[in-house]
Amino acid sequence: MYTQLEQRGMAEPPVNVSTLRKMKEEGEPIACLTAYDASFAVLVDSADTDIVLVGDSLGMVIQGHDTTVPVTVDDIVYHTRAVARGLRRAFLVADMPFMSYTNPGQALENAVRLMQEGGAMMIKLEGGEGQVDIVEHLARHDIPVCAHLGLRPQSVHKIGGFKVQGRDAGKAREMIASAKRLQNSGADIVLLECVPSELGRAVTKALDVPVIGIGAGPDVDGQILVLYDILDITQGRTPRFVRNFQQDHAAPLAALQAYVKAVKDRSYPAPEHCFS
Ligand code: KIV
């Protein structure tokens, strides 16, 4: 019975939280991508991506909104279920959308939906000090949690745009303290978005759990990017940290393999993808 989760007919066992911790300890970069449907999930998994996130970025890249704010729990459940069908090895994380975790009870109810109905293995929520009690409550119920710090796109209207966070020394210190509190409250992963490389390095050094960066510099434990950005599907201006992996490859699978390789050999992110 216990072997089912480990085998799934694979040469390599599926990634789990222990694999990710071990990768941090051994200094092996963790390669992560978003996905929103079964066909891309198969490709992303075949490229040996370690973590697949069904991000609420789907509100922008799939649904065509300007922000992630309109995304609902039903939307995430629907896309997570589709992605789960395409994965064999990768660890599946699903985003808790805007206003789906305003109190511990509501957060637990929605996290259970993402896991039971969607097939997620971990949930991600955007949080700082204000979410510590929620992370604690979820962890007490054995829900694996990824805490998202730095630029939190669900707060875009409060922040006043998609901006680099933690440039000010005081804010950087607060972010390191929040990351530690979230880890101590039970977060299994911390995701850092759009922060100076120096802060990415400091948070990674301060934590035992893996730190995954998007625009957080080269010295974090892993990298994540939005699938449509690296496959050159996103039109218009892309953020500084995006690299187009499709341009040198004819097939999407080759582009995804190039991304995983670049994360593993640390050639991505290069200085031009980082913030100071
Ligand atoms: O929603 C998302 O895709 C994300 C990534 C940008 C990390 O949160």
Provide structural commentary.
- This protein is α/β, with parallel strands linked by helices and 276 residues long.
- It has one domain: TIM Barrel (Alpha-Beta Barrel), CATH 3.20.20.
- The protein is 40% helix and 14% strand.
- It contains 12 helices and 8 strands.
- It has helices spanning 4-7, 17-26, 38-46, 58-61, 73-86, 104-116, 132-140, 156-159, 169-184, 197-206, 227-230, 252-264; strands spanning 30-34, 51-54, 91-95, 122-126, 145-150, 189-193, 211-214, 222-225.
- Strands 1-2-3-4-5-6-7-8 form an 8-stranded parallel barrel, surrounded by 8 helices.
- Helix 3 crosses helix 5 (73-86), helix 6 packs across helix 7 (132-140) and helix 9 (169-184) packs parallel to helix 10.
- The N and C termini lie far apart (50 Å).
- The mean pLDDT is 95.
- The chain binds 3-methyl-2-oxobutanoic acid.
- 3-methyl-2-oxobutanoic acid binds at residues 34, 53, 55-57, 95, 191, 193, 214, 224, 226.
Provide the gyration radius in Å. 17 Å
User: What is the class in the CATH system?
Assistant: Alpha Beta
Q: Could you tell me which ligands this complex binds, including any ions or cofactors? A: 3-methyl-2-oxobutanoic acid
The quaternary organization reads as: single chain
Global morphology: globular
Total domains, how many? Answer: 1
Strands of the biggest beta sheet: in what spatial order? Answer: 1-2-3-4-5-6-7-8
Q: Helix and strand string, N-terminal first?
A: HHEHEHHEHEHEHHEHEEHH
Specify the structural class: alpha/beta
CATH architectural arrangement: Alpha-Beta Barrel
